[in-house]
Amino acid sequence: MKSGDLPSGIDRRALVSALTLLPAFPQLFLPATVRAQTVAGAPLASWNEGSAKQAILNFVRVATDRTNPQFVPPEQRIATFDQDGTLWVEHPIYSQVVYCLDRVPAVVGRKPELKTVEPFKTVLSGDREAMARLSRHDLETILAATLTGMPVEEFEAEVKTWLETAKHPRWKRPYTDLVYQPMLDVLQYLRDNAFRTYIVTGGGQDFVRVYSQRVYGIPLEQVVGTIGGTKFGYDKDGKPFLTKEPKLLLNNDSAGKPEGIHLMIGRRPRAAFGNSVGDREMLEYTGAGDGARLMMLVLHDDAQREYAYGPARGLPESKIGTFTPALDDEAKRNGWTVISMKNDWKRIFPFDS
Hints:
Rossmann fold, alpha/beta
C-alpha cells in the first residue's frame, strides 16, 4: 500500500485509546526537513495584523515586564502546543496512522502467515472502503504489530526512513515540510523571551520525538505524548536495550493532556495552543492559573491554502481535528483567542511565497 491510498472514515478515539501511541483517523496524511525559523526583523512576520497576533504580543510583553504585577518568572515560562492540526497538517489523516498502514507490508514480510489473516489482508488489498470498515479490534491489531515488539532504536530508525520517503498526497511533499510557518514564528518568539516550548500531543511520544528537534526546534525531552510501555532486557551479547511493548501507559488526549503535563513537566503552562476538542482540557487547565495566561485555538477555515473543517462556524464536519460549536462557545466565554487560518496567517507553510 502506498502513502495516499488510505481510507477516510476511521474514528480518532478508536486509535488513540487503542493501545500504544497515536491519535486516530477518518481521512488522510505528512515527513522530511523543515527547521524552526522566523523571518528576520519584527516578530511573528508570517502573521497578519489583528487581534490574534496582538494577543500573543501583549501576553509576552506582560509576562516579561518585571514592573507588571502579572510578570512571569523565567522558570515558570512554559508554553504547550498540540501537534496535529496546530503545528502541522492533520488532514486527510494523521501522519502516524499513515506510517502504521505503510508498515503492514514489512510486518507481513517478516511473518508471511499474516498475509491471509485479517486485518492485514484488508490493508494489503488497498481497498480503501474495506479499510474504513475495520473494527477497533482490527486497528489495535495493526497498531500492536507496527508500533511494538522491536527495540526502541529499531523503531526510531524505521520512522526516520519512512519520513525520508513518504509524501503527503496533496502537496507531494514530505510530511515534515507541512509545518505552519506562523506557528514556527510563535515557537521562536516565545523561546526568544525565555519560554520553554513543549509539544503535548495525542500522537505517539516516541514517534514525535524522532523529528521534534529538527522540525520544531523542540528537544525530545520536551515532547509529551501518548506513551506505550517498554521492557528492559539484554541482547545475545549482553548489551542492555528496551523493547516497545503493546501496553498503554498514558493516553495523552483530552483529560490526558493536563495529566501528562503534570507527569512530564510538573508545571501548569502559561500558554497553550490547540485546535480541537481534544485540546479543551489543556486550555482549561492552563487558564485556571493566576497571572498572565494565553490560550489559543487554530480554526481551519482556509480550504484554498490548506483545509476547512469544523463544524464550528458552519464549516464542514470532521472526525479529525473536530472544532465544535460548543468549543467555540467555550472559547468566547473564557476569553480564549481563536486563530483564523484564513484571516490571521499571511502564509501557511515555509515553502509558500
